[in-house]
Amino acid sequence: MLKVNKRMNTESLFFHTFNYTFMALLAIVTLYPFLNTLAVSFNAGIDTTRGGIYLWPRVWTWKNYEAVFITGNVYHAFWVSVARTVIGTFFSVILTAMVAYTISRKEFLFRKLVTILFVLTMYFSAGLIPSYFLIKDLHLLNTFLVYILFPSAGAGLISAFNMLVVRTYIHTLPESLIESAKIDGAGEFRVFASVVLPLCAPVLATIALFTAVFQWNTWFDTFIFASSRQNLSTLQFELIRLLSSTTNFNANPNLTSSAAKDTASMITPISIRAAITMVASIPIIVVYPFLQRHFVAGLQLGGVKE
């Protein structure tokens, strides 16, 4: 008996040692690119070109971030991005959940046909040119609505993938809850709003995170549909323009003052790219911990149907 216990303790010790070592290495591999980018963003641009920056800046400077925020439109573009992310995510999640609930109902005769049509959109697309003419005919060019209705250069407000995830999650809910609500006189919309929607909080948080990251990071729709309206410029689009301009400081119209020119002389495309990456990533990093618990639960329950 003692030999068995000793063997079990040895195996347990070996397993935990291997497990902790593997997870530590995985954490290092995962965190290193972020920490390296953070270090480069705080390092002097000219010194960065020498290489050898790993986890700590060699020559500390704020010039890279000054170059990012030196343009006055960045602050306005930040709030435009926040507005499109919040509003676009809200409507996308609600409408996706409504479609998923409708397709999940057995009494809906065309649920299979509608599901197939949604799945086809994941493999086939009309393309950018037809989408552009559609948006033009709808008089949505250079309007804020184009960010909500057609995010990312023509993609729809409802994601087929997210809809399927929510539909699968709804199938895991007890049917008796929905039937009880209907017996009590609740209509379909009341059942959806009062019963289904609260129970779908984990999977809705999951797709909300997907949608928010997508809305926050996209910039191509601004370039295609709203580039002529400066007040509709998003943060990502402004950062992309700044990154492009760093290849030729003299051609950058925003670096006209002596202070700006001094800043330009201290930055390089590598350093400014790191600063831009951090500025664009921090809002999502701040939001993610609040959704992590729902995110994991939503993937586990909404991704597999037993």
TrEMBL record:
Full protein name: Carbohydrate ABC transporter permease
Fetch the SUPFAM superfamilies from UniProt: MetI-like
Look up the record and give one Gene Ontology term from the biological process aspect: transmembrane transport
Which species is this record about?
A: Candidatus Cohnella colombiensis
**Known Pfam families for this protein?**
BPD_transp_1 (PF00528)
CDD domains (UniProt xref): TM_PBP2
What topology in the membrane does the UniProt record assign?
Multi-pass membrane protein
Q: Which family does it belong to?
A: Belongs to the binding-protein-dependent transport system permease family.
Tell me where it resides: Cell membrane
